[in-house]
Prior knowledge:
By secondary structure, the chain is of the alpha/beta class.
Amino acid sequence: xxxxxxxxxxxxxxxxxxxxxxFLIRRREKFxxxxxxxxxxxxxxxxxxxxxxxxxxxxxxxxxxxxxLLKRFSRAGSVSNFYASIDTGVYERQVIPFIESAMMEVVSxxxxxxxRLLLKESKYANLYDEDEITVPPIFARPEFHFERTELQTRxxxxxxxxxKELLISNQTCTIVTNDPCLLLYRRQLLAFKKLNAKKLLPFxxxxxxxxxxxxxxxxYSGFILKTIRDFDVKASGFQIREEAAAxxxxxxxxxxxxxxxxxxxxxYYGQESFLPNAQKQTAVSMRxxxxxxxxxxxxxxxxxxxxxxxxxxxxxxxxxxxxxxINGMEVLETQNALYFLLDWLSQHRTELEKRGIxxxxxxxxxxxxxxxxxxxxxxxxxxxxxDVYAVVRFGEFxxxxxxxxxxxxxxxxEFELPNGEIAVLPDEWFARYRxxxxxxxxxxxxxxxxxxxxxxxxxxxxxxxxxxxxxxxxLVNAEQDEIVVPSNLKASLRAYxxxxxxxxxxxxxxxxxxxxxxxxxxxxxLQTLTLLLKLKRKKQGIIVPDPVGxxxxxDMFSKSDAAEDEAVxxxxxxxxxxxxxxxxxxxxxxxxxxxxxxxxxxxxxxKVEDIYKILGYYDVIITTYGTVRNDLELLAGKEFFYxxxxxxxxxxxxxxxxxKALMRMKARHKLVITGTPIENSLSDLWSQMNFLNPGLxxxxxxxxxxxxxxxxxxxxxxxxxxxxxxxxxxVLRRTKGEVARDLPPLMEEVRICPMVGEQQHLYDKExxxxxxxxxxxxxxxxxxxxxxxxxxxxxxxRQLANHPSLFEKDAEEGSGKYDEVFRMLRNLVAEKHKVLIxxxxxTHLELIEEGIKKEKWNYSKLTGKTTNREQVISQFQEDTNNxxxxxxxxxxxxxxxxxxxxxxxxxxxxWNPAAENQAVNRAHRIGQDKxxxxxxxxxxxxxxxxxxKLKERKSSLADKFINSNDPFQQISQDEIxxxxx
Length: 981
């Protein structure tokens, strides 16, 4: 059997006339039989090996299939309705040009490929070799001949192919497409680049066309001028000359039909201009000389134009159909897009002019400045503040930067220059200086900043003087300074503790407040006492008697001249929760016994008759937050050396009496100590930072607007970075994993477990019932009075997410979480690991216990019902075959040391991460010599997953800046409703 051949046939369409169609044919003895019309889906058949150019031909022809035309140009329900109802104007203006363009694409491939073109009668299925049509590999060339006499102008149209003239008068010719023209001539398909077939029609029957001189003015300025511009022309009786015109490129800022700003490039040759994508290649002008005409023809310099286009591309412009844009501009609204373009023009004006490209503005409602601009900045340090002096050069104008301050703070981009032009302030200035300027105060032509804003200035202003740069380095590298630890310290500092002491000392030396925010158990108290011991006052030989006599009574006969001596360093005041007063006192006696400490709280206060004597004699006074509030009038009138707040989250509410009282206290230096500077909101951080370094983060209203709202509601990374930059020199946070070498790394992972079988259906059904119940309760009684209903609903859904049998004892549905837990347990037991399994539901532990028994594994269990607690713990720790410990969160969250375990399973994670962390710390603690892996099991598409996302969103604030043990104090009604959707 003969092989299949792919061909293109020129055939008649019942509505469209002659079109190309792709066929597979097979040779018979004397003819070819059509196997099938080819469609793109035929590429997957195995009876023919398709070549790339054959596939491309099929795809092009498919563009004008009946179905594709219907879909593109009509909403008619069927092909027959489409052709019957289509508007004649639409058909001629849109459909026909679309088809002819596609057919020209087909011919351009046929000119260069071996695919044969055959003429096919639509009613016959067979084809013959004599039906083949040759497609020459080059375009046919038209040439117009004009002859002007005193009476008339005659013109001929001659056609040439490969230099040979083609005679078309009285020949059999068929026009296949009009524009551009495809002409069927003597078994050849001639293709013309841009000739419209209408220009050929007169010459099929006659040799020339005559035009009387009575209408020659219109004829020459119209038809002949366009013909000279677009085609090769030979003339007699009038003159055509070619000459080079002066040329230049112009980039114009203008508006399109949608009033959007655009850049348009035009190439000028004398008075004629061309867009880059213009089809015409020449410019033609005409003038009448007496009784004759003269045409001047200027050809475009395409090489020069390509150089200009390449230059624009190199400096950041991209072209789209003759219009130029900049990457990123397409996503901007109209006004910002205009500013974007103006900014680009200002930045690149000099470079454009060097390349011979002019800049122009058209159709804009204002005259914008597009000249060069330059910002010049100088800084000068003066004591506890420093000045920033800056000027901006807009071309010939010199503007003090302080005049632009309100524009930048209020996001106003346009600034009017003295000559009336509008200068657009670059977006970079807003990004760089908007976060800095709110903290500066106007001082003449300068902007003045406080010393604790060095980090902001250093980040925003690169041209800072040497003293500012050194001050910045002192702040960010304070812990790297080698400060000798006091020799009378009764403890050996770990490396990170020594770093913390040196860091606090560096901030003390620079007069800055510090926040020591190390993880719990890392020795924040010891580091603080080391600092106080280092700064213990020197008496300079003066003996100061104890103002409190034996038995704790005030010695009324003691006198202290030193207490009144201004040179004597006053005592430091440490404010702590009541429960920590004795702990602090004991730590002082243990580690720094040379520091004299006095506990000022409760009834002890009554022994103090003269607070000045207390300040002059003791090094440290320990008091409580409640005492400060109660004795504010007494304490606020005195100055302390250091004012230190332990558990400083106690002042997180800036509206509280505690915060307001402590803000009234006077101290030369300040320090706060906390493990959780952020518990609920960034406002917690603001309160503590504002206590330490007033004004560091601006006012609370500004901080809410600039940081809290963008970060908490919109997760604005730029503002997160800015806030981190501002607080970084003043906050030191180290976690256990970062600093304790004898504590192995902790690795945590959330396992998402899909529901199995009917579990999801049961869960969704119950969720719908619970949601309706809760919404009704909230609508009737409000959120606060509906807490029990909400909690009950949450608990029921949690049980269902864990295992349906926790919800209904006899439930037969399985659990994806249960399956995943046991899959992992099998691997861990086989590999001889030990695992702690925590759950807040004892019934859940009992369910796991049943599965463990079936596997015949050794295990231990600890719940509130366990009476032999120590025995159960020892059994797990000491028995190498006992690899699983089931523990309820309430019974085992504290007081356990289970370092034999190296895996921890949290079966049902919930609200409070602090409780989970306590559970994790049963294994991950000092003495552990293995890596600890923590897995939290979350059921997919359940209440657990929503809670987990809520936890991550809220706790991420603390993770970004310092960390927080429990960011959940409340949940809004909207969040409640969202949980049950």
